[in-house]
Amino acid sequence: ACLGAMTNALVAGHGAAAAWYGGVVALLAVVAMSFGNFAHVVYFEMAELAEMEFVERLMALSNGSESIEHHERSEYAGMLTVLQPESRRFPNALQSLFDFFGLLLAVVFTAVLLARVDPLLLLLPLAAVPPLWAGGRAQAVIERAKTATATATRGARGLFQLSASPRFGGELRVFDLDREMRSRHAALWEDASRGLWRANTVAALLRAAGQLVFGLAYIGAVILVIRNAVVDHRGVGEVILVITLATQVNQQVSTAVTLLGELQRMTATLRRLDTVAELVAAPRDVPADLAPPERLTEGIRLEDVGFTYTGAQAPALREVSLTLPAGTVVAVVGENGAGKSTLVKLLCGLYRPSSGRILVDGEELRRIPVEQWRERASAGFQDFVRYELAAGTTVGLGDVPRIDDTAAVRDALERAQAADVIERLPDGLDTLLGRSYADGAELSGGQWQKLALGRALMRQNPLLLVLDEPTAALDPEAEHRLFERYAAQAVQVAAATGGITLLVSHRFSTVRMADLIVVVDDGRIVESGDHASLMAARGLYADLFELQAGSYR
Ligand SMILES: Nc1ncnc2c1ncn2[C@@H]1O[C@H](COP(=O)(O)OP(=O)(O)OP(=O)(O)O)[C@@H](O)[C@H]1O
């Protein structure tokens, strides 16, 4: 309005009035710009908080669930691939949200001004509907393409990480895989890009079609005011005002399409997060209403347990019936892929049996809240984690309430025969480990594994201690010494809590000292007993034992 009045005053030769109106226009422009700067600071701060919350929710969903079954679902992996980079979009989304409210105000204001000139001009903001609708469709096409190309994107990212990781640098060079990795990466990238490119082209066409409709309305509005000026002898200021407003509406429409696209993108992200939550949630058919026993008296019994991984053709375990007596060391042996680790994961509550039951002192394991059960269990896994933290913390993580208890950490290291690893470090337990994030000390595979074993021995009096190939990276001599000592201690621990130690190992010299040896073959238990009885039975265990003993002779 000020712009129109200023122009009319100028044309009429009223210089002072034109100057006043010009001053008001300039003042309004300065206020708008200053407000924009303050808003920028606020939304930046809010975006940081929102991004942090989003990433933490994603982490909690990934690792806070009872089961790890969702990690096997390709749908989950696809969602995560799309979600990870989206966390960086929060600043844009929040800015869009703020800008959108500002834009709405501006649109209303512009519409009132247009209506004052000629009610017919109200059709101009209405003509914004087709481009907005087309913008919405365009963003939906892009979101669908992101989901459809997630597998290729994930593959390409995986290959990039593999190539960039110092851990695999040696193998990649020995097999001269640099070019092979790059060409596979390029193929996957091209695959993903092609899908996204196609979607972006369709989206651009849709947006252009929407803008075209608006463009026609824009031309109509200009013709209308020119006609008004010529036929009805309206002021030139009105023509200039309407052309300025129409240009403004044009800008507002394209801004609105961009802002709505950004908001739609964030809505899709939040919807994906909900889908992840649904995939992760494992519905319960029985209440978790029992506390784990203080001490085991009978032991852990598996009754007809079967388990099939999500998406797998064949079961990994079938009809497993077995008792792990309280206070014993039980060894599980079998060839690669027999089902040993699967059995271990079921006992840790990482998966639920597909059929059958697991009983802890006669009570169903699934009725014990899984986090309480895990508090009374401990594990050294085959694929243990290399926590790149201070050495003492890396071990102390095995019992978080005592993470800073140096005496407890040293004791666990002693029992894991890992004290020598710490002795060689420049700052002992305070030495930072690993080089992925900072300049820490690098350890050998066996040294990392010794620390992982120390971590597994941190918890006091667990009811179940699982050691799944915990010493594969140690030499046979070191493994043998470790288990001789460990077995002696296990007797004391077992007397106190009736705790069971479940040991998975390929080394028969270690296995033979177990109270009970269970032989797994193709997902079934084919033999069980102590070393002497299994040797006397001359079955699979005896064959495997002889084979290994023979190779050492
Ligand atoms: N996450 C998984 N998803 C689908 N199938 C799996 C998964 N993990 C294991 N399997 C399959 O289940 C079967 C048993 O695997 P498991 O890891 O229990 O064997 P294992 O006896 O521990 O072998 P190894 O001695 O090689 O560690 C194998 O056929 C394997 O291919």
Structural description of this entry:
- The protein has 553 residues and is α/β, with parallel strands linked by helices.
- It has 3 domains: 2-278, ABC transporter type 1, transmembrane domain (ABC transporter transmembrane region fold); 292-376 and 464-553, 3-Layer(aba) Sandwich (Rossmann fold), CATH 3.40.50.300; 385-461, no CATH class.
- The chain has helices spanning 2-11, 15-63, 74-86, 90-117, 123-126, 129-148, 150-164, 169-174, 178-231, 236-280, 340-347, 370-375, 391-396, 406-415, 419-423, 445-456, 476-497, 508-511, 531-537, 540-552; strands spanning 299-307, 317-325, 329-334, 355-360, 363-364, 377-380, 464-468, 500-504, 516-521, 524-529.
- A hairpin with a 2-residue loop joins β9 and β10 (524-529).
- It is elongated, with a radius of gyration of 35 Å.
- The chain starts with a helix and ends with a helix.
Quickly describe the structure.
With about 550 residues, the chain is an alpha/beta fold.
